[in-house]
Amino acid sequence: KLFFTDYGNAAKVERCDMDGMNRTWIVDSKIEQPTALALDLINKYVYWLDIYLDSVEVVDYQGRKRHTIIKGRQIRHLCGLAVFENYLYTFNSDNLSILRINRYNGTDVQSLAGLDNAKEIRVYQKRAQTPVRSHACEVDPYGMPGGCSHICLLSGNYKARTCRCRTGFILGSDGRSCK
């Protein structure tokens, strides 16, 4: 799945398959400017930062079990969001510091380090990387991902895929080659 935020005409958090199909709103109320998103891949939770409401909230992948982690002045001016183990990590652009927030109750907020400037934050740790099983976009014996001549996008599950073409090309009748 691909998860993303939008705060155009109607602010929301959405998800879709990697090929853009099955687009679903998972949060569309009491939300104003969702600017950062983080996923708990193990427990299937979506965390987002709303810079207008000065809040960090969470829902499950279906948009249920919504609750606020933390809200208020102490989290103004935040950029980016990452989740690892029991904490959320974000960057405060006002005092140029990395913050660590307890993701279960929001009470344990600590400034970890200072940086000159940042707009995003990511946690890279071997335990945070889920194992990859074989999937429909693996390279075939001819070097083509999923048998697609240009672009292979996973569909509703890891066994299904959709081929797409680069700009200026159209997909052939075989659903794999681009002309």
Automatic annotation (TrEMBL):
Highest taxon of the lineage: Eukaryota
Matches recorded under PROSITE patterns: LDLRB
Keywords: Lipoprotein, Receptor
Gene3D superfamilies registered for this protein in UniProt: TolB, C-terminal domain
Any Pfam family the entry gives: FXa_inhibition
Cellular component terms per the entry's GO annotation: plasma membrane
Ranges for the LDL-receptor class B repeats: 1-43, 44-87
InterPro entries tied to this protein: 6-blade_b-propeller_TolB-like, Cueball_EGF_LRP_Nidogen, LDLR_classB_rpt
GO MF entries: Wnt receptor activity; Wnt-protein binding
GO BP term (any one): canonical Wnt signaling pathway
Protein name, per record: Low-density lipoprotein receptor-related protein 1B
Origin species: Leptosomus discolor (Madagascar cuckoo roller)
